[in-house]
Sequence to fold (342 residues):
Amino acid sequence: MAWKILLPQEIMSEGRKLLEDAGHTIIMGRGFETEDVLADMKEHQPDAMIVRITPITREVIESNPNLKVIVRHGAGFDALDVKACHDNGVQTLYAPVANSTSVAETALLLIFEMSRNVTVLHKTWVQDYYKAKLKVHKTTLNGKTLGIVGCGNIGSRVAMRALALEMNVLCYDPYKPAKDFPDGVEVVRDLDRIFRESDYVSLHAPNTPVTHDMVDMARLKTMKPTAFLINTARGGLVVEEDLYEACKTGVIAGAGLDAIRQEPVDPNNPLLTLDNVIIYPHIGGNTVEAAHRASYFAAMGVQEVYEGKTPTWPIHDIDYNTAPTYTDTKKPDKKPAGMFDF
Fold:
């Protein structure tokens, strides 16, 4: 017997076709908010759900005893109460590689924009062409050091692209053995060194009890005053009040953000007033190509569970306080091709 599958938000045609061809009934949700999903759960009692942006709470999960699987349409799943799912026998899946490339490109875009002081240029060049051209501070990426915090699917892609830009790349990820990091990077086990030595620090870690608020004023003060913070991961990693003060007072040179604490953004967020901070509306994973892949992979996950197969991308319960960590290191064999010493 086929399933009823709730879509709080629409998915792309490939995913929908896979489910419909298998005979499942698609239920379009009534809205994006958690209370909308809760109402749909109670009314329709679906067997499965593919969720994109709606926070899914324990109340939602426990409102439907018929629920068998929830798939997160993308890589991040901190808005899904995974423990509540597993407590109630609901399988949890995600699509961790679907948008990795697009998020990596977004991190690089922010790095480029910060290096060229794009916000100030945009505000200046029409009124004062020569000031924008000759006096607005701009830097190159060649020879600069990029520190990556979290070297999974996304962080690894950022690292490889930064190496192609002839940057020095330091990577920190305590849960990954050195042999699994991209060739050409230096594996660093001291998080403080990442912040102390990097010209750009790019965050690619999940929001966990270990990483929550990891970037506070104390850590920002260890960075170079010429350095930039890049966050395309989760807003919970950064203490925003501290970041505002650090960017405003010159503790660091600025920040490029695709993730903040409150989304949609509060119009009164003081970070919006700073010329050395760029904020995107969490669009890193929202390219057309990424959406097509995520929709197909999410639908594939539902179908795998329906057929009794072992799903390709399950979400596991991880206690990051006790998870195994590694201390081995690795240095690059040589400088990136074309690196200049002058």
Residues 226 and 253 are 5 Å apart (CA to CA).
